[in-house]
TrEMBL record:
Domain called Lipocalin/cytosolic fatty-acid binding: residue spans: 36-176
Compartments reported by the entry: Secreted
GO cellular component: extracellular space
Taxonomic path: Eukaryota, Metazoa, Chordata, Craniata, Vertebrata
Native species: Amazona collaria (yellow-billed parrot)
Region annotation (Disordered) ranges: 187-221
Name under which the protein is recorded: Lipocalin/cytosolic fatty-acid binding domain-containing protein
UniProt keyword list: Glycoprotein, Secreted, Signal
Record-linked Pfam families: Lipocalin
Transmembrane segments: none
Polar residues bias (residue ranges): 208-221
Main location, first listed in the record: secreted
Amino acid sequence: MAMAAAILILTSLLPAAAIRCGALRPDNSTAAKLLGTWLYMAGAAQLPRHLLEMLLIDHGYLHVEPGASEQELPITQSVAMGDQCLTNNSTYMEITAGNTTLVKEAKTQQPVGTVMDLSSEDVLLIQHRLQRERTHLGLYLYARNLSVSRAQREEFETQAKCLGLSEEGIVYAPWRRERCRMEEVERGTSPWMEPSAAVTASPPLGTHTLQGTGNRSHTGQ
């Protein structure tokens, strides 16, 4: 069934009209702000298969750790699908002052995601590009806690629209059953999921069989 994991965003609350559809330009404080555990809140995708995959996700976590340097931050992502919690740690964030913050595949060093610019340090937004016959975009929202404000949701939806993603392509995670635990994600003890060259909110292709539908909505949980 699906793919792997992904990531982030920051600043202080702006009106929707001031939102920029662009990548995060890091400064000296960016690495410290990205560290720690983020809760998966929502995803948006162009590819119908990705939408089906997102509908199977109940909840998830993204954990960003300090690396050997402040320029590289290892990522562990876990998602709950059905009765399983699947984890992937094959990606990392590359932070270079003045440049776009990228998510890269650890083995190939190839960029698979871009950290997008947002107005709040409590949310993280990552744009994913999947290259098949053509480029398919995805956008994934994370937050420090489950109480995401209406303004933050609207900003995510505005960013999705800015990238050409439709409201029908947005799915919010329901967070009904706790299959993945934050402590296990932080310790890296959740069951391992095969690495994928793509960073998305869902596990690698071939992991599961699609079964049913979930919580597709642009209005929230």
